[in-house]
Design brief:
Order of helices and strands: HHHHEEEHHEHHEHEEHHHEHHH
Number of helices: 15
CATH superfamily of the largest domain: 2-enoyl-CoA Hydratase, Chain A, domain 1
Mean pLDDT: 93
CATH class of the largest domain: Alpha Beta
Number of domains: 2
Low-confidence stretches: none
Radius of gyration: 21 Å
CATH topology of the largest domain: 2-enoyl-CoA Hydratase, Chain A, domain 1
Shape: globular
Length: about 325
Amino acid sequence: MNYLEFEKPLAEIEGKAEELRAMGRANPEMDVEKEAAALDRKAEALLADLYKSLSAWRKCQVARHPDRPHCRDYVATLFTEFTPLAGDRCFADDQAVMGGLARFRDRPVVVIGQEKGHDTKSRIVRNFGMARPEGYRKAIRLMDLAHRFGLPVITLVDTPGAYPGKGAEERGQAEAIARCTLKCLEIGVPLVSVVIGEGGSGGAVALSTANRVAMLEHSVYSVISPEGCASILWKDAEKMREAAEALRLTAQDLQKLGVIDRIIAEPTGGAQRGREQAMQAVGDALAAMLKELSGKDAASLIADRRKKFLGMGARGLAA
């Protein structure tokens, strides 16, 4: 288990419990289980206390936790008969965006998501989930396919933002993001989205301009990262804690503003401590959101989506 900075006291307690059990395994005559169990209870209480009221910055840290389930984990767990489709038919295949045809609870769908990678090698291949223009053009191609065959689209968002490199800009990064966002608004099939980790900037909006948008409890969704915001506004990246609060990027804030429709509860300690439980909760939320949209024709779905985004923020302003 990788521990975050604010989890250090928890790491010490859990480490001591494991040391006791290791001593017990090495010397069967030692009875350490009672002391280890007491430490387990103390750790559980501390874990619940730490996650009871996380600050915005701590939620950013949890959302970026390397042990959280990533897109490929959700696809493997929630979908069957997944057939990946590659390439944008223009330049290349962007490994930061994965997608294809699949069945979700026996219903044919198109699933698209951003994949960060799970180790050093795969993170480099996946570019840490930061898509280039060809990634967004691949998503457009898949959404066109879904529209043609009347298949619901499910998107799983987890990106620090679109890749800002020179080559990406030369190949039309901004245009690709804008066209992908427009395509989300145009398709006449149900489109549901879940922010499973980071929802960073236009790179996230391009896949989450959906009829229904949900967020995991400790995920974040914002126009810029706290570090980037702090660098611009305060000329000091160390002001990221203040920036995180000002951005109102937590699921709880965004639901109040009407930016998202539902919050998916995570296990105590975050999705990284209960991966299967978190993924099943996402599956249940996806099923519920698709059910809400069932029976609507193409015109109604498009109108629903446009109305949602034109009215965004009104709930928060009224409050």
